[in-house]
Design a protein that fits this description.
The complex is a heterodimer of chains A (about 525) and B (about 270). Chain A is mostly helical and about 525 residues long. Chain A has 16 helices and no strands. In chain A, about 65% of the residues lie in helices and about 0% in strands. The chains are: A mainly alpha (about 525), B alpha+beta (about 270).
């Protein structure tokens, strides 16, 4: 399909730490993003284990309720902004220039900057753990007036969010610029791999909503320090307005966390089914529909704030509609598998696990859309179960699937297959052990974000805690496996997988420092 | 081969369901004690079964494919990759199912928003971390806060059966009477939730939210604050006691006397 010209003088770059600090190379920056996400995954995971330890039994055993609230807040911020978003940006950096047949990202220096903001943002956020008044404990949703009771940590929290937003916006602009400008001749939009498509749409979502979040948190900042009353009822402000602003960002945000997963799964399923993706164009349209709908459903997070009946009904209907394009995606994946010739290497296992468990999360999402029933589900562990199903065996499994799928390409080495499969089965078992019982305690009446609970919830909480520790330790396998694969292993071929299609498989494994110095020919 | 596999699958599925049925009450949403809470429970079960049926069909097709269409069985992959009629079908069918769900849900929602003809009006105010109840148009008003002793919370004493769901003063209301609650907060957001009454609404400073209920059965119903409100968010339960109308009148009269005494002292 193409000839790869090794243009060696372009490969010169500083070595050691300076290589990573000064790099403008999309692969180096992709690697940085992915390692950053990995470190944050373990930090956020430790916080989850603090939460699950305290909830192992009724009663207060290990931490103060205030610190417990800090843990739930920080766990969410770290996992959303520090793990899932950077991991997908890392995958985008690595794969998008290669997938569209370009040499690098369109804006390489900005690329460097958008990554290197992140360590500072998170140092600032995590430093609040040692401040007077403790780390932010008002929930990641930062609802005032409670979030305004935060101590010294407050301005650090706000500026950390500003930095994360800056980083995301720059990353998103870079991805849009790359996709629209760096495609090889003949790579029309409707020939792009779905991972590129889903990221293009995600990037537009990011550009649209991150400024909204920035605006909202800035208003919180001025309410706290400069005497404004945007959200202060006593000063004529409106606490509910913050929730509208937050969720106008927050709902597209949850699709930012899941759309790239759809792209990853749409790459992996056809490869291991040895059959082209079913319904490519309807997948593109479904992704675009989900993105559009994501802007008109935000208030389903606020069914209990006391909106007028018409508002409740509108947001219920709009939310239910999302099930249609999401269903189309799942049906297309299953039909892609149908009559294929499947093998089940680790990436395929993670992709199938994704489809099943993401769909379970989708089902509970549909239940949550039914407003009268949502009054019973809202702010309970049922919701916790729902969004962890779409985020952990959803987004996180897709990221892991992508890592297994492209790791041989990135490193030039095959990962140990048995170990990968062990990682998958342990993760799947424990993730369900952790989150499935949460449906039950939620329905039985356990609210979320509580450090202690009444006795009827004890059994399932104990099971969930055991599951959480199992899941946490299973991830050490992942870390070990990645380091081992980077260090060596069976050499990977250029194609790596028998049924793989796409430009990345035409390059050597590992690919040259600059991907396509000469544009590939697209059939 | 074909039928045996199907049979095994069928038995496995049925046994999961019956197992779930056995311990249903502990695992499922409460049916509650009001007409509306029953409707909410039925909506919940309806959507749950819709999801289960769709799940069985989709996952069934998928597992069938995983079992049969594998390379190790020497399958040659098919090459089909699009069908407009299929895409059309699986857009329209879910859409129709959703409309079928939306209609009963909207009906129930409209009933939940009807607060007309309420006979008793009670104002609820959330504080960090207790509730205040005021019976409007009477002098009766009191605070209600957690009564579980600290020794139990800090594991120095065995926990009683109502651990973290007991308060010093119950909210007393009559059965078979429409009660309207007016809900607000004095500081941060709270949410007043009693699962058995299918009532949950946020208490927001500067807002007065409304909800109403007719309780069918006397009894003690326990609920919790459902919106993160700070350090003791997990420690501000709600206990509402529904009594016969006559008993309620007696309680109210006695409380009025007590409260007017308090009012005189305060003067």
């Amino acid at each position: 399909m193409s000839t790869v010209v090794k243009d060696t003088h372009h490969d010169e770059h500083p070595s050691g730490i300076m290589r990573w600090i000064t790099t403008t190379n999309h692969k180096d920056i992709g690697t940085l993003y992915l390692w950053f996400a990995m470190i944050m995954f373990f930090i956020g995971g430790l916080m989850a284990l603090v939460i699950r330890s305290e909830l192992f039994q009724p009663g207060l055993q290990f931490v103060d309720p205030q610190f417990f609230n800090s843990m739930t807040t920080m766990h969410a911020l770290v996992m959303i902004f520090g793990v899932v978003m950077p991991a997908f940006t890392g995958l985008a950096n690595w794969m998008i220039p290669i997938m569209v047949g370009g040499p690098d990202m369109a804006l390489p220096r900005m690329n460097n900057w958008s990554f290197w903001i992140m360590p500072f943002a998170f140092s600032m956020l995590l430093s609040t753990l040692w401040m007077d008044g403790g780390a932010p404990a008002g929930g990641w949703t930062l609802y005032p007036p409670l979030s305004l009771q935060t101590g010294d940590a407050f301005p650090f929290l706000i500026f950390a969010i500003h930095f994360m937003g800056l980083s995301s916006i720059m990353g998103a602009i870079n991805i849009v610029a790359t996709i629209l400008n760096m495609r090889a001749p003949g790579m029309s939009l409707m020939k792009m791999p779905l991972f590129v498509w889903t990221w293009l749409i995600t990037a537009f979502l990011l550009i649209a909503v991150m400024p909204v979040l920035a605006g909202g948190v800035t208003m919180l900042l001025t309410d706290k320090f400069f005497g404004t009353s945007f959200f202060n009822a006593a000063g004529g402000g409106d606490p509910v307005m913050f929730q509208h602003i937050f969720w106008f960002f927050g709902h597209p945000e949850v699709y930012i966390l899941i759309l790239p997963s759809f792209g990853v799964v749409s790459a992996i399923i056809p490869t291991f089914a040895r059959k082209p993706l079913f319904g490519y164009s309807s997948m593109v349209y479904a992704t675009a529909s989900i993105a559009f709908l994501s802007f008109i459903v935000w208030a389903h997070h606020m069914f209990t704030v006391g909106m007028p009946l018409a508002g409740e009904v509108f947001f219920m209907f709009a939310t239910m509609l999302i099930a249609v394009p999401t269903g189309v995606k799942v049906f297309n994946w299953v039909t892609t598998m149908w009559k294929g010739s499947m093998t089940f290497e680790t990436p395929m296992l993670f992709a199938i696990g994704f489809i099943i468990m993401f769909t379970i999360g989708g089902f509970s999402g549909l239940m949550l859309a039914i407003t009268p029933a949502d009054f019973q589900y809202h702010d309970t562990y049922f919701v916790v179960a729902h969004f962890h199903y779409v985020l952990v065996p959803g987004s996180i499994f897709a990221i892991m699937a992508a890592c297994y799928y492209w790791l041989p390409k990135w490193t030039g080495n095959m990962y140990p297959e048995t170990l990968g499969k062990t990682h998958f089965w342990l993760s799947t078992f424990f993730v369900n052990l952790t989150f499935f019982p949460m449906h039950f305690v939620g329905l039985a009446g356990m609210p979320r974000r509580i450090p202690d609970y009444s006795l009827q919830f004890a059994d399932y909480n104990m099971i969930a805690s055991v599951g959480a520790f199992g899941f946490g330790f299973a991830q050490l396998i992942f870390l070990y496996l990645i380091i081992k694969t980077i260090k060596g292993g069976k050499k990977a071929t250029d194609e790596v997988w028998e049924g793989a299609e796409g430009l990345e498989w035409t390059l050597s494994s590992p690919p040259p420092y600059h991907s396509f110095s000469t544009p590939p020919v697209i059939k | 081969m074909f039928s045996i596999k199907n049979l095994v699958l069928f038995i496995a599925t049925m046994s999961v369901f019956s197992l779930a049925q056995a311990g249903w009450m502990d695992l499922n949403m409460t049916q509650g004690v009001t007409d509306i809470s029953h409707e909410v429970f039925n909506l919940h079960m309806l959507i749950l079964w819709v999801c289960v049926v769709i799940g069985v069909l989709v996952f069934g097709a998928m597992f069938w494919s995983i079992l049969m269409h594998r390379k190790s069985r020497g399958v040659i992959p098919a090459t089909f990759h699009e069908s407009t009629s299929l895409e059309f079908l699986w857009t329209i069918v879910p859409f129709v199912i959703l409309i079928g769900m939306a209609i009963p849900a909207t009906k129930t929602l409209i009933k939940m928003y009807d607060h007309s003809d309420s006979e008793i009006h009670i104002k609820i105010t959330g504080y960090q971390w207790l509730w205040q109840y005021e019976y409007l148009n009477t002098d009766v008003s009191f605070y209600s806060k957690l009564s579980t002793p600290y020794n139990e919370i800090y594991n120095k004493k065995e926990k009683n059966i109502n651990y973290l769901q007991q308060v010093d003063k119950h909210l007393i209301v009559p059965v078979n009477t429409k009660i309207r609650f007016l809900l607000t907060s004095n500081d941060v957001l709270h949410a007043w939730w009693v699962p058995d009454l299918a009532l949950k609404k946020d208490a927001i400073p500067g807002y007065i939210n409304e909800m109403s209920v007719v309780i069918n059965k006397p009894g003690i119903y326990r609920g919790r604050c459902a919106e993160l409100c700070g350090r003791h968010h997990g420690f501000m339960p709600i206990v509402i006691e529904a009594v016969e109308e006559k008993e309620y009148e007696e309680w109210l009269a006695a409380s009025k006397v007590k409260m007017s005494g308090v009012a005189k002292i305060n003067k």
